[in-house]
Design brief:
With 226 residues, the chain is of the alpha/beta class. Helix content is 32%, strand content 27%. The protein has helices spanning 7-20, 25-29, 40-55, 73-76, 89-102, 140-150, 196-203, and strands at residues 61-65, 81-86, 107-110, 123-129, 151-162, 174-180, 186-192, 208-214, 219-225.
Length: 226
């Protein structure tokens, strides 16, 4: 329920993602622990859909929140002047290596998504992939307020995230999800799965939701004018 995500749980989730940096992309590629999951062909087709959307988004100065290993940064940086923010140093290291290997550039900033170390109205647009689903409802206004502060009025924000794939998963509801790393360690992260309707409702305080969409089974997303 909203308000149940403690500071201790938040710290543990941040630590988990720092530990996961070297194996994070296995989720996208369906390798390692994810290799045996069903509907692999559908999964890869929908990841490709997301890639096409991201490749066509962004211009000018772009802030990417929770940039992780740079899976999406590598596409954004071909169109825009990207500042890639993440809290986990190991993620930022992976991101830097990925961009250098492709001859791409982005400013890397370690920072808290709830207290962005960035000037007001200093970006033309923003992007976040698979971060909104980790924002507890009691901190949503704080996060969206920071986006409104750093992105200029009239700028756009693209958000992509996970959709419910099982009958037991209720869209728009907070729950704790167990994650297992390759070393066998178990971790709990807060997760909120979204349909186009729930992601549009969640992002409505940010501005005008111009589109909310689904890739079919696994992902959803939205485009917001601030």
């Amino acid at each position: 329920m909203p308000g149940s995500f403690s500071p201790t749980a938040d710290t543990a989730m941040r630590d988990y993602y720092n530990q996961r940096a070297g194996e994070y992309d296995q989720w996208y590629m369906r390798e390692g622990r994810f290799a045996g999951r069903p509907q692999a062909e559908q999964w890869h087709a929908e990841v490709a859909q997301l890639r096409e959307r991201v490749q066509s988004f962004g211009a000018g100065r772009l802030i990417e929140i929770a940039a992780g290993t740079g899976w999406w940064t590598q596409h954004l940086a071909r169109r825009a002047d990207v500042t890639a923010l993440d809290y986990a140093p190991a993620m930022l290291a992976e991101l830097g290596a990925r961009l250098r290997a492709q001859g791409l550039r982005a400013a890397r900033v370690r920072g808290d998504a709830y207290r962005l170390p960035l000037a007001a109205h200093s970006f033309d647009c923003g992007f976040t992939g698979f971060w909104l689903s980790h924002v507890p409802y009691d901190r949503l206004a704080e996060f969206l307020g920071e986006l409104r502060r750093v992105i200029r009025p009239g700028g756009q924000m693209m958000v992509v995230d996970s959709a419910p794939t099982e009958p037991s998963q209720t869209p728009g509801v907070e729950f704790m999800h167990e994650r297992i790393l390759n070393d066998g360690s178990r971790h709990a992260v807060l997760k909120i799965l979204h349909t186009p309707a729930t992601i549009a409702q969640t992002l409505a305080p940010l501005g005008e939701v111009r589109a909310a969409w689904s890739t079919g089974m696994f992902f959803t997303g939205a485009l917001v004018k601030i």
